[in-house]
Amino acid sequence: MAGLVVDLPVHQSLRTSDLEQARAFCRKLYYAAPRIEPVGDPGRFDFRADVVELGSITVGEVGHGTDIRVWIEGLETAYQVLVPLTGELLSRHRGAVVLADRTRAVVFRPAGDIELEWPGSCRLLSVKVERGALERELDAALDQQVVSPLPLGASFDLVDGPGRTWVALVRLLLNELRGPDGLASQPRMAARWRDMVVSGLALTVEHPYGEEPAGLQGPYRPRTVKRALDAMHAEPWRQYSVRELATVAGVGVRVLQDAFRQHVGMSPLTYLRRLRLDGVHADLSRADPGAATVSEVAYSWGFTHLGRFAGAYRARFGVAPSTTLRDRG
């Protein structure tokens, strides 16, 4: 079952002067269609990347050796943080222009296009967190409804406060996972470190959610709704009925349905279906096409009717599940 799968770290590195090889590497580990164009001396192009994938996060150090420009279109599946280790980076995203350097990280929401002016002097730490993972973490930490995508700030400070600690944690994790004998390479420890990276980012990024409800916040959820949500997240593949969820919550069916519409914005079973779809999408996005099939992943998340599943998947993500699996390979 999906909940029993232990994510193992996968370490991949590349050094090349071939632009197409660099593009292919970035497509595989980050986004489907990045455009990378040298604007400096093409003869100095020296792509170096050292990247570790660990479940819902992808962490790596990346540099290009010469000045480049990068365009990423239609970012939808993940949140991204870039932290220059040397030099500086200019980014444009959703109207925000950020000059990132060793004192300030840049943050991208899964909405809209990204443009980067990336000097050859800039080698950076790149952290990608799957959309559902960060949203579930912030949702759970606040115990209230959050909007998706999260209205995060475009940057955060690295000199003082949680930003400095979070980056130190990420760098330590990357160094540990790159070695074969580090403690973090053990599956149970690796999963805990991954969770620390996600939860640490949720506490580091700027957002409008706080102690008092704000304009973008949803209402605090009653305990009955929280009980049903906890049950669904614990066993998302289980074939729950509304009546079973109402029993878990300790209320009647109609009361639970009304509470979900008010505090979650959808019915309990709609929420469960979305949770499962997000889980399938995450698994397909990192699966080996030669070792996994769409039907196996769908069944592991509780989908028993593949035709209806495929239609719901396309409606949520805009592509067929087989396309997600194939593009990952």
Main features:
329 residues; Jelly Rolls; Arc Repressor Mutant, subunit A; 2 domains; five-stranded antiparallel β-sheet; 12 strands; disordered N terminus; DNA-binding transcription factor activity; transcription
Write the layout of secondary structure elements.
Layout: E1 10-16, H1 19-29, E2 35-38, E3 47-54, E4 57-63, E5 68-72, E6 78-86, E7 89-93, E8 96-100, E9 104-108, E10 114-118, E11 123-130, H2 131-142, E12 155-157, H3 162-178, H4 187-204, H5 223-234, H6 242-249, H7 253-263, H8 268-286, H9 294-300, H10 306-317, H11 321-328
Antiparallel strand pairs: 1-3, 2-5, 3-4, 4-11, 5-10, 6-9, 6-11, 7-8, 7-10, 9-12
Helix pairs in contact: 2-4, 3-4, 5-6, 6-7, 8-9, 8-11
Q: Which outline best applies?
A: globular
**Helix/strand/pairing class, anyone?**
alpha+beta
Order of strands across the biggest sheet? Answer: 1-3-4-11-6-9-12
CATH fold category name of the largest domain: Jelly Rolls
The span between the termini is: 22 Å
- Give unreliable regions as ranges: 1-5, 210-219
Number of DSSP strand runs: 12
Entry summary:
The protein has 329 residues and is of the alpha+beta class. It has helices at residues 19-29, 131-142, 162-178, 187-204, 223-234, 242-249, 253-263, 268-286, 294-300, 306-317, 321-328, and strands at 10-16, 35-38, 47-54, 57-63, 68-72, 78-86, 89-93, 96-100, 104-108, 114-118, 123-130, 155-157.
